[in-house]
Amino acid sequence: MSNLTLTKTRLFEGVWEGQLVYDGEHTIQPDIEVTHLERPIAGVQVIESESAGFWILRVQIPAEVIADGVQTFLIRDRRTGVTLDSFALMSGDALGYDIRAEMALLREELDLLKRAFRRHCLETT
Q1: d(C-alpha 5, C-alpha 124), whole Å
Q2: Distance (Å, whole) CA 40 – CA 34
Q3: Which residues contact 72 (CB under 8 A, 6 or more apart)?
Q4: Which of 55-59, 94-98, 102-106 has the lowest average pLDDT?
């Protein structure tokens, strides 16, 4: 189990940022690995904050990993192997299809509920 806590602060201009805090007192810089499809992402920065006690994690999202569908990134503590957090990017035609399919399913379920409710109302009056 890792004694690090990671809290997302923002995603801006293709850079995911978070705040790393140790539970208790540690002065060792965290050793963080970010992967996409089990491949490490280059350019991960762990920067000590001016006010001691936490580090800023910056992950530059490479343009070559941005594609249709859902792209998931895992953030791990390399020393313990524990996954601290993850984030996902969703885009493109595949996402649109997923949303349309989900909306169609919701409409079908709503129609089913409306029919059942109307039948119930007729039977109870």
Answers
A1: 56
A2: 6
A3: 36, 86, 87, 88
A4: 94-98
